[in-house]
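>> received
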Amino acid sequence: MHKRQFVALVIVLPILLCGCSHKEQTTTNSSSSEGGVTSETATTAPASAEAVATSLGKTPVTFNFTDVAVTSSAAPLLRLGFDMKNGASDPLLCDASEFSVQLADGTSIAADTGAEDTCTPDTVDPGSTGKVVMFFDLKNAYTGPVTLLMSVNNAVVGRGSTNVH
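>> returned
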């Protein structure tokens, strides 16, 4: 085996075997003492279907809103009840720390982890649906569009919109 082929194999093999679910790009420069030849090899690991769908604005987790309300007493609190369908290939832990909402003005609000948020079941298997209730503290009374986001490892895996009346 030639030195360049061996170097390329040593670099490409771990990328192919890592089973990464996100797109990685690696550029390798190698030099040979044979006539000062320099070659550049670019390799790209294949992206998972979920990563491709997410990059296209589609997400593997979908929401069907069943209850949307804002409290009218004390500080305004947004309550979102929804069914969460897991279209991903892995089970998803349903935890308040993974949810946030975006309001029409661009304000982003994390779920109130101290509220009585519920997920039934706690882990939603691929192809299954869970029932979820999340609470979000609003600074002011609010009506208008709301986008619910579910993020896992800093990647949005679920996105859905509804209106607050």
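>> The longest strand covers residues 61-70.
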